[in-house]
Amino acid sequence: QSYCHRLQHDMYFLTSTSRLNEQVVDKIVLQLNRVYPQILTNEEAEKVIWNPKASLHTRLSDLLKHLQKKGDRHCQEFYRALQINAEQLFNDLPSRKILKTPDPTEIDTGKEQYMLNDRGPVFFLACFSVAAGLALFWYCCNSETQVTGRARRILGFSPIIIGRHVRNICLLYLEDISRN
């Protein structure tokens, strides 16, 4: 978004309810007058600063319209002067708030990281235990291996990993295999 469009968007905010006082406006105008290349000529600066007949709202509106006509570089220098002389107001600008909000289509990697890890370490250990138990069970039930005695000892000491009912079923199955 160009600075001219941002300034057009922020114009009502800047001119409403005297957010800028006369001293800050004067500092901004003087800074724009002194910047190289000169953004405001001496005549333009005098017209904005020392016009006793016009209100601050009118002078500020005229200044913003004049900067928009001059181009993007002039509007950018106004924002720089505003940031230097009224930083809190600069941070509260509506166009700044739009720039700070993230794009809804953009993927937030930090948020996605938490979404993948929201179950915690206990869930991981439970899944790993089930997978290890099933792998051990598959290995023991394979007809080519003759390790039922060792598997029986391992399954006998595994009430923590798999529940008592599952362990009993596994032991009964191993006994049936060894009988056949």
TrEMBL record:
Q: Gene3D superfamilies of this UniProt entry?
A: Death Domain, Fas
Which segments constitute the CARD domain?
A: 38-97
Q: Does the keyword Chaperone apply?
A: no
* Biological process annotations from GO: regulation of apoptotic process
Q: Can you list the GO cellular component terms from the UniProt entry?
A: endoplasmic reticulum membrane; mitochondrial membrane
Membrane topology term reads: Single-pass membrane protein
Question: Which SUPFAM superfamilies does this one have?
Answer: DEATH domain
- Keyword Mitochondrion on entry: yes
| Segments crossing the lipid bilayer | 121-139
Keywords carried by this UniProt record:
Disulfide bond, Endoplasmic reticulum, Membrane, Mitochondrion, Transmembrane, Transmembrane helix
What InterPro entries does its record include? CARD, CARD19, DEATH-like_dom_sf
Which residues lie in coiled coils?
none
Question: Could you tell me where this protein is found in the cell?
Answer: Endoplasmic reticulum membrane; Mitochondrion membrane
For this protein, the record's Pfam families field holds: CARD (PF00619)
Q: Describe, as the record does, how this protein assembles with itself and its partners.
A: Associates with BCL10 by CARD-CARD interaction.
**What is the name attached to this protein's record?**
Caspase recruitment domain-containing protein 19
What is the native source organism of this protein? Dryoscopus gambensis
From the UniProt record, report the name of the gene that encodes this protein: Card19
